[in-house]
Amino acid sequence: MKVVKTTTVKNSIDSGTTKVDETVGLALKDDSKLLSQLTDVLSVLSKNDALTIFLMAEEGMRSELDTPIKIGLTKKQYYTRLKQLVDFGLVVKRDESYTQTAFGKVVYQKHILGLTNNIKNSKYLQMVDALKDNPKFNDKDIMEFISKVEPQINLDLQESSKKKSTVVSSYEDMVRKILEMTEFAQNEILLITRFQNDLIINSILKKASSGVTVKILADMGMVKEYFEKETEIKLDKNKTERVKVVSNPFYPSKADRRYTQVPFCLLVVDNKHVGLEITDAIEPGKFKMAIFAEDQSLSSSMVTLFNNLWQKSDANPPRIVTKTI
User: Fold this and answer.
1) What is the pTM of this model?
2) Is 287 exposed, middle or buried (0-12, 13-18, 19+ CB in 10 A)?
């Protein structure tokens, strides 16, 4: 029986799946710790007596024996909540008074006052939601209307919709951000990739199975690496099926995959969220950094780039260079 042996060039970049698993695990632990701290702060400020003390500390609250009575609290309520506010870094004692810490002042200015104003103006925010549900009005029409009715609400909404971007400088952080973006995908995932990573593959497979449209442009050089996992491909009726499995880790799935020369990695989710790899000018094959942004304009530009590459791509994997032994 003749056996065909594949000849490929090894990709110099290791997928680093094990290392990525460890990094993601550490990130989840950090997120868990942060979530616990956030829960503690929100929990204490949700108590009426603690919030009363926190608000009084904004201008400085003298600590006297009759302070609990003056503010309508029992001594137990007063000292219990005061200790919690101090422990969570919201309030500190200076001389004979309790005052908000720098952290406490930021929480007060950005969240307590902001939330108070938003509650007062909740009817206008409800109007915004009602108008958004009406196809007759676009975002521009709504913003113009709200700016005339309540200018501050308009400013707050503009602030909340400002473009947000993140720069990561390690391959592991890039993987973590990609997993985060794909996890929340609702309609479409467009991916240009020159790396193989099992975590990303599994995440995208799950989304494709759930009904999310997935289109992938794979780097030809990366695909060649897949064939190294199966150095011998027998010449029989199942050869074509085995080639598909080796060359396409997404096969068989609902993900639409094509092949081309990939200049860098790109991810666009729901025509809104963008992840863009910045390659090293001296060593193009080496990962340097990636930028992630929530930007409608940038997203549209990247979708156009993706579609242009898609039109020039090949539906078939790269030809395998073989020799008969």
Assistant:
1) 0.47
2) buried
